[in-house]
Amino acid sequence: MQWLIKRRNRQVLGQEGEELALQYLNNNGLILVERNFRRTFGEIDLIMQDQATLVFIEVRSREKSQFGGAAASVTLAKQRRLTLAAQSYLKRYKQLPPCRFDVIAIDTGGIKWLRNVMNE
Fold first, then answer.
1. Strand 31-39 to strand 42-50: parallel, antiparallel, or no bridges (unpaired)?
2. DSSP alpha helices (H): ranges in the chain?
3. Quick check: is 120 in a domain?
């Protein structure tokens, strides 16, 4: 039963982090296109428009900054899943828009916006 409580706490932390990230990005001029785009092989937390660029955003929240914090938790495997999900999302476009991958890392120190973090 303890594992269920921990899982719910992580889900709440993740949802709160996504909401905080969305507000932060809106305040910085980005416009929400889609939220929680899911496929069996991966999920994209936020898809936003930054002028002409489509931005795929991974939100990572950590209560503690041990093990490198939120930003370090975006592993190579996670990056591959994000890439697959983004490729699936882009199938709806006849002409591909400029795209980039960003990470919003939320730690005890606040919010850090890492732009254009993957070169896939």
1. antiparallel
2. 2-27, 69-72, 76-90
3. no
